[in-house]
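Problem: given the chain below (235 residues), write out its structure.
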Amino acid sequence: MIEPVKRLNVGDEVVNQIKDLFLAGKLKEGDRLPPEREMMDMFQVGRTSIREALKVLESLGLIERSQKGTFISTNFNASYSESLVYQFYFSEAEWDDIFEARWIIEKELTCLAANRATKEQLIEIEQTIDDMEIAINEYNQENYVRSNMMFHQNIATSARNVVMLDMYNSISNLILRIQEMLGTHQESLLVQSVMRDSLDYHRKIMTALNNRDAEKASTLMKNHIQIVQGYFKKA
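Solution.
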């Protein structure tokens, strides 16, 4: 049913204009917003409307406020990931939904990386595999987890698609945050056999990347993540 259009209140209009400035690139991360009194003059509204708008923008994670002033957030992805966590809890989403989204995104990122990664980026990716092997041999799970995360992060970055990179970071952060909230520690899953299986997959993916074989690299990444998904189901 069509409902009557409601007039936006003044605070909503301020919120929309600041969001539009951010999306247009006229406001960037770290930029400082004018003091409240200047914003009142700029928007020709009262102090209450400005403060209401700032509260909304802060709740969205778009701005940060401190004694030094009000700034466009430099940590917007973290706020977005946080909101995804609560969406997960208040929706019917399951682990399978999250991992499915992850492998779809990473599969395509790996495909792009096979074609776009520079030689320097390929060397950086390969270094994470060496670091993983050292961590396994030293039974150092903390270093293993760090190197494993960097392997996937470096591939995502080398794909050179900023939109998909943001999507990857959001999904990756979502998985980590939910693990923390559920009290599930990744280290508990990392027995030697599991770590070596992941290392073997990483090596195969690396070989495909070096050969610029996008189809094989992306298929291996999908299979790798689906196997990891199986470990979480058993945990």
